[in-house]
Backbone:
């Protein structure tokens, strides 16, 4: 017995192996990015017409929204007095007739020719004693039957309509059915998360018997997308760990103890747990790249300070990068207030210690202040710097950058964060990166 088909098997099969897909349809599919059988079975409907909610024309009520499945009986196009193009379409479902109007959509004449079966969704109005919809959502359903009709993206330029696409998808799934489609997710995992089989999901996303079927299929296929993203991220992490070397920070000592002791409050349980996880990463020989997500006011900056102090304990520097000068100034005030009175070892000085130095670097600084901060960073006299994009300018150099904290990741490009991460060391080791964000993590991919 042949084993189930894997996606790599389907990706190796061009769409023209399917019955009914000749050169013309092959080229049309290629125009929308569908070249293989794998592409075709993952070319999902953009929405569905739920015929269980279908209304008959005779039952329509003025002022209410409704879904009507009807056949075009007449199409007219003319210009109004103010120069707008008016397309008037008369449709009937056997119980009555409905007028559908479109303004400045001349292409509807080609779409809604006489005899075309379509679904119309919109608000019902009355004009001169006749029921009417103005600019409703239109889905061409052809002669397909069933409670739920999938509607695929249509391309007039490519010459693709939804029922032709549905027929080709159905043919692809039919050809796959003897061997079935392999599911890489173990049955135990599917049971744990309430997921249906991948092959079943592909069948239901394209041919659901109910909207519940479509949602169950979507849940499984979204899981697959997220699963692939996670695998890609894990692979990136593995490669990063293989080819980069971290710093192995010291995450305990008098400086951190003194900071904790002088806080006017105790850390919450969530903050303690998060600091512990970050410190576990910082103590490893591989560089950290961690996302710290929390609501505004949840104490992310305080947690980030613990990470920055771990760099300072080992004789390195910390950098906090904010998206705007206003936020950078707010951060530096908060950091200075929280770290006030703390001292660090000063082997280059006649004294045993010196005050922990926190500086601000933005484009608002005058030339003298900017030069002083840059010299302090290069010499290692600045322990923590707070700044904006000014931190990634060519003139900025660090003696030993250990930890980088970026506030609001979405405001910075990948290249900018990489620049700040890579430019701070001459020994080849990679600083650790902590990204703070109040933005919820997207639930879809």
Residues:
């Amino acid at each position: 017995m042949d084993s189930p088909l894997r996606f790599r098997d389907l990706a190796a099969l061009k769409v023209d192996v399917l019955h009914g897909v000749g050169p013309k349809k092959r080229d049309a599919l290629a125009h929308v990015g569908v070249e293989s059988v794998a592409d075709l079975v993952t070319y999902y409907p953009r929405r569905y017409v739920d015929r269980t909610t279908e209304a008959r024309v005779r039952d329509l009520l003025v002022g209410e929204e409704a879904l009507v499945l009807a056949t075009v009986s007449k199409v007219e196009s003319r210009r109004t007095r103010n120069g707008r193009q008016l397309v008037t379409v008369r449709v009937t479902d056997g119980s009555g007739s409905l007028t559908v109007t479109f303004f400045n959509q001349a292409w509807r004449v080609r779409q809604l020719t006489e005899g075309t079966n379509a679904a119309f969704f919109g608000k019902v109005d009355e004009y001169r004693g006749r029921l009417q919809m103005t600019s409703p959502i239109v889905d061409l359903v052809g002669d397909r039957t069933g409670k739920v009709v999938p509607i695929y993206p249509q391309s007039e330029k490519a010459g693709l309509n939804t029922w032709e696409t549905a027929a080709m998808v159905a043919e692809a799934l039919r050809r796959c059915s003897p061997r079935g489609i392999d599911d890489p997710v173990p049955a135990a995992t599917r049971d744990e998360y309430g997921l249906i089989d991948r092959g079943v999901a592909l069948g239901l996303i394209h041919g659901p018997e109910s909207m519940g079927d479509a949602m169950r299929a979507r849940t499984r296929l979204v899981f697959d997308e997220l699963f692939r993203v996670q695998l890609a991220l894990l692979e990136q992490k593995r490669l990063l760990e293989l080819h980069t070397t971290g710093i192995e920070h010291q995450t305990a000592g008098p400086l951190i103890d003194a900071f904790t002791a002088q806080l006017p409050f105790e850390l919450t349980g969530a903050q303690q747990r998060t600091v512990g996880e970050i410190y576990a990463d910082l103590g490893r020989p591989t560089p950290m790249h961690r996302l710290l997500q929390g609501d505004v006011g949840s104490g992310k900056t305080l947690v980030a300070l613990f990470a920055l102090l771990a760099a300072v304990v080992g004789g390195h520097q910390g950098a906090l990068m904010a998206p705007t000068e206003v936020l950078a100034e707010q951060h530096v005030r908060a950091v200075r207030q929280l770290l006030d009175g703390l001292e660090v070892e000063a082997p280059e000085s006649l004294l045993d210690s010196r005050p922990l130095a926190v500086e601000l670097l933005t484009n608002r600084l005058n030339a003298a202040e900017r030069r002083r901060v840059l010299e302090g960073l290069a010499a290692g006299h600045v322990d923590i710097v707070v700044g904006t994009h000014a931190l990634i300018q060519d003139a900025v150099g660090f003696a030993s950058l250990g930890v980088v904290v970026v506030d609001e990741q979405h405001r910075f490009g990948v290249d900018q964060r990489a620049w700040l991460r890579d430019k701070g060391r001459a020994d080849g080791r990679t600083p650790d990166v902590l990204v703070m964000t109040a933005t919820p993590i997207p639930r879809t991919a």
Notes: The domain at 254-437 is CATH 3.40.50.300 (Rossmann fold). The first strand starts at residue 47 and ends at 50. Residues 245 and 429 are 5 Å apart (CA to CA).
